[in-house]
Amino acid sequence: MTHLEINTAKLEMAASKLRAISHPMRIAIIDLLADGSRLSVTEIYEKLGMEQATASHHLNILRNKNVVVANKEGKKVFYQLRNMTLAEILDCINRCNES
Q1: Stated pTM of the model
Q2: Containing H/E element for 3?
Q3: Using one digit for the tens of pLDDT, what is the confidence trace for 14-57?
Q4: Is the C-alpha dihedral spanning 57, 63, 68, 72 positive or negative?
Q5: Among residues 69, 79, 89, 70, which one has the least CA distance to residue 27?
Q6: Could you give the domains of the chain?
Q7: What distance in Å separates the CA atoms of residue 13 and residue 88, rounded to the nearest whole number?
Q8: 15 sits in which H/E element
């Protein structure tokens, strides 16, 4: 029997990222950005029908966990996914729920 080395730091990082995306509004934000879109906070909260403060709160969590990147242009901040992997994971989960 082979002993597998477990990298606990890597597992903690993965768990932290999964916790960050585990909120329905954050999943909705990731879904909006999953096609490679680059959207402003205004575009995000308007498309999702939420308050600006709520959108900013969720985007801050996603940014702090390196799920999205933010680029400021003038007075606007634009968000996009850091990479498509988490969007692909969410797509996989959605397909698993299909009958």
Answers
A1: 0.84
A2: none
A3: 888 889 888 999 999 999 999 989 999 999 999 999 999 999 99
A4: positive
A5: 89
A6: 18-93 (1.10.10.10)
A7: 18
A8: helix 8-20
